[in-house]
User: What shape does this take?
Amino acid sequence: MRLYILLFAVLILQKANAQNAPFYQETFRPQFHFTPPIHWMNDPNGLVYHKGEYHLFYQFNPFGNRWGHMSWGHAVSKDLVYWQHLPLAIPEEKDTMIFSGSCVVDAQNTTGFATKPGEVPMVAIYTGHIEGKSQSQHIAYSLDDGRTWTKYNANPVLDLGKKDFRDPSVFWYAPQKKWVMSVVWPFERQVKFYSSPNLKDWQLTGSFGPAGDTSGIWECPTLFEVPVKDQPGKSKWVLMLSPAPYMQYFVGEFDGTAFRNDNTGTKVYRPDYGPDYYAAIVFNNLPAAHKPVSIGWVNNWNYANDIPTTPWKSAMSLPRELTVKKMNNEWTMLQEPVDRIESLLAKPVYSGKAVVTGTKPLSYSGQQWDMECEFTVASLTKAGVKFAMAKDKYAEIGYDAARKILYIDRTKAGEQDFNPAFAKQNRYETALNPINGKIRLHILYDNSIVEVYANEGETVMTAQLFPHWNESGIALFSDGSTTSFNKIIIRPMRSIW
Ligand code: FRU
Assistant: This one.
């Protein structure tokens, strides 16, 4: 009898670790990052705030766990932390897929879609994609706060007869009382700016690019006004876009017709210096005092379809609050996870200081935590944090004082062989200067995703890794000489599911 019970228990455990684990507790499933219940997801689309709800639409395949049949999936949140899944918003139709785009609230009914007093149309502006043939801009509207959608009967609203012309990002430009669209010509590495009084008739007003990183095709532009940190009333404009498979941003001015880059020179500025952050856009229609908030897709087109997760594929980044600051005469975008994420923090399991030489394992292990740490960097030393550890497995986030770089290295972490491109993209570095001799890291680790915010959020790195449940050790390390960690706090994070 005992043997049977034991066998039964083993079977159940095996099942729990396989595909039939309880929903949202499957192997590698992030617990505080958004994932669709099942199937494939890529870019965030149509981020918009309306009547107390944050809407997240996303590129979604309703039929499977790889890219295809692109349609808009939908979820809403009251706090940017907990998400409620809603039915498919905009399905592909016949030969036309619903590619990326944005969503606006047409409060003045410029479209005329509202037919009764009190109705406020939400309007989605997206690319209608006919495989191998054409891409043009389309609209669809909802008169019930995003619950049901109707495609406009005179689509497309903007068609140049081009094969590649996509990802319209639209917002209301109050100073000139008009809608503005940024949209890309991917292969030309250009963002085109259009204006419209009614979301139906569009006029070309300006163009930007090629500039910065032109190595990959340009996708998913987003243009927005950002407050300058610690200078109330001051703001700049940021143009962010995705040169595949990474992202870049420009900081400058927008006059309603075209964008001017104020960071001159050839340096490329990225919102994220890790391997897995793409297609980020910002929320439309946020209340005036709200800082801009972005969400990005945590994956990389070089291996996205093959990551070893099932029954879902891909996650969204944490929502990030954005400001800009002039540092060493360069405009830099600063990012922090939205404060409300703190509601998920459990009590600290580790808190204190440490003087470290070599590797110092911590007593706590886990795969779902938030760590704040600050250390003084001795010269010729590499120091930081190892996690997802077991025997010879680990991932490493470190600062190399000799080279003044922050790096993330997943070479020895978790599963690697699901796609050869993954192992080729295992180490990422970016320049970072200490502040008063110190490096400050805020690391949020969530099973198969890690996000690192360095110093004031001037550098962020996001990476996927696929460690098994027993690869969960954490250690501090200092190679070269001794490092003083003057602050380490680790708090487990609760699940949002
Ligand atoms: C970016 C992208 C977009 C396109 C969408 C299709 O990841 O290639 O340019 O609209 O994905 O799913």
